Amino acid sequence: FLFPVSNLCGKCRPRDTDLLQPSLNFLYWSLHQTTPCSQQRAVAVLLSNVSLLELLQKVLECTWLWSPPSRPAYLSSEDALLCSGWLLVASLLLYQHRYNTEVHQTLSVDLTEVLNAVIFRNKKPILLLVSILQFLRAVLRQNFSSSLLVIVGQNTAPSATQPQPSSLQDTALHPLAMQQVFSLVVSLQNLLVHKDLLLSQAVVACLETLVEYLYVKNQDVALHVASQPWHRFLLFTLLSGGQKSFLQPEVLRLMTLFVRYQSSNIISQKEISQIVQEAAEANLAELPEATSSALHLFLCQV
Predict the structure, then answer these.
(1) Alpha helices for 48-125 (secondary structure H)
(2) Closest Cα partner for 121 from 53, 184, 56, 39?
(3) Which of 19, 83, 130, 136 has the fewest Cβ atoms surrounding its Cβ within 10 A?
(4) Using CA atoms, how far apart are residues 43 and 274, in angstroms rounded to an integer?
């Protein structure tokens, strides 16, 4: 079914949401729920379909066009389609890189628009933010150098008519700028305060990947970002309310991040001891899988 469904998508317009959204979901499911051998073939089929990629290009661009001043509280059919489009593209980026699949048509994305979608949010539904964060994480993991993707934006092609990078740090972090990095980090912190499980998982994963990217580009910048005092306030905020346990997946993953980058002003030996004590007293067999995985990574890092 992969071949006819992808061909059908290529014949649609972005406004054909009732047909496109479940079709893109089927393509996404087909990439993830299969064996590695079948997965490699599936990626090759999708990336060889130029009309499908052109359709995905239009869907991504609709993210910036379909932005009414007052969005409905529920997930509209248009927003659902955008979620499916961003998630499918993020997956194609991941698997194209993994299998080094030939690319017949590139996708173009404005980096400034992507960052602004997270930084300013503009009443975007949580699921759409999660989908865009998945995409952003994928391009960060590939160092903005995927053969499937062309990154455009104000910082991606300095010229004589554009402002040059304001500092050596901006040059090292290219195509990101320092101001964008700090704005993005603050926005990710603010999104964590919402305490939505799905959003928290996506935000922490994106923050982890961002700091990893920064560490490769400029270790001083990465360590500076990881040691921002606001992170400690964020941890106390996440631990407030009904569940004060450190054994929450997003808290454990944040703690792991701070231990990895030696942010002793954020997480102290006392907090590390508290986590180990809580883990020792907990019934590990009853912990949710996400918590068990996060705890394992934390203890390995310690």
Answers:
(1) 50-65, 77-99, 111-119
(2) 184
(3) 19
(4) 45
